[in-house]
Amino acid sequence: MTSTTYAERRGQLTTYFDRTAVEAWARLTSDAPVSKIRATVRAGRDAMRGTLLSWLPDDLSGRRILDAGCGTGALSLEAARRGAEVVAIDVSATLVGLAAERTGTIAGGGSIDFRVGDMLDPSLGRFDHVVAMDSLIHYSAADIARALAVLGERTDGSVVFTVAPRTALLTVMHAAGKLFPKGDRAPAIVPITLGALDRRIGREPALAEFALARTHRVNSGFYLSNAIELSRSRA
Ligand SMILES: C[S@@+](CC[C@H](N)C(=O)[O-])C[C@H]1O[C@@H](n2cnc3c(N)ncnc32)[C@H](O)[C@@H]1O
């Protein structure tokens, strides 16, 4: 049986998000006009970002937040505007560069420390909250659970992230196929069953103190993603 390891998949994603799809991502994450299909994706992603941000405390002053797989940085910017000290990391140096360019001056007292690299790098330190929006969706359930365990160990509050739900496999496949033209298709999205992921999370000792606090599905045309919050039970 062949399975892609975390490192292999991260390598494919680096190539994809640092070269193949840079133009498409820059456009999708801007205000520039896009096709009808991509407009549904943009709307879904806006709604998802809003959901994840609404699960964090309103006042983020002095809170350390990891934006794991920050892409072009929209979530980081909103968190920083609410006062957070954000560490924004992505394997794509090009997208991180674009994010830094787009950030400008931050009103609201927060800050963003942009980094190029792996979200699991231990040198990033401890966090109050970790957010991983659509950055784990290309990894296997086993790799997601392991990544959550690594991140959870360094998190005092909550880890909020998204997965592609398995129940609407067809929609996900359509979305993956049609979002970008043939030449710059993404590495496959891995649909996940919430129950199965929950069981894997339950088997991770590092996540023993975390509970699945809430979930929310966003389905907007060709965008389909499930938000999940893992919270330290004592929080
Ligand atoms: C679908 S994009 C989402 C970007 C951003 N979170 C957003 O919602 O706009 C996924 C991002 O995760 C990044 N990524 C994937 N695996 C990563 C890893 N192991 N460490 C850091 N970034 C990663 C990719 O380079 C890509 O920019």
Percent of residues in beta strands?
Answer: 15-25%
CATH fold assignment: Rossmann fold
In round numbers, the mean pLDDT is 91
Return the domain count.
Answer: 1
Q: State the end-to-end CA separation.
A: 41 Å
Overall SS class: alpha/beta
Number of helices: 8
Keywords: Methyltransferase, S-adenosyl-L-methionine, Transferase
Enzyme class: transferase
Protein name: Magnesium protoporphyrin IX methyltransferase
EC number: 2.1.1.11
Descriptors:
Mg_prot_MeTrfase_C; alpha/beta; 235 residues; 8 helices; S-adenosyl-L-methionine; eight-stranded mixed sheet; Mg_prot_MeTrfase; single chain; binds S-adenosylmethionine; Rossmann fold
Sequence-ordered SSE layout with sheet pairings:
Layout lengths: L5 H15 L1 H7 L7 H19 L9 E5 L5 H8 L3 E6 L2 H11 L7 E6 L10 E6 L8 H13 L1 E11 L3 H10 L12 E2 L1 H9 L7 E11 L2 E10 L3
Parallel strand pairs: 1-2, 1-4, 2-3, 4-5, 5-6
Antiparallel strand pairs: 5-8, 7-8
Bound molecules: S-adenosylmethionine.
S-adenosylmethionine (SAM) binds next to helix 1 and strand 2.
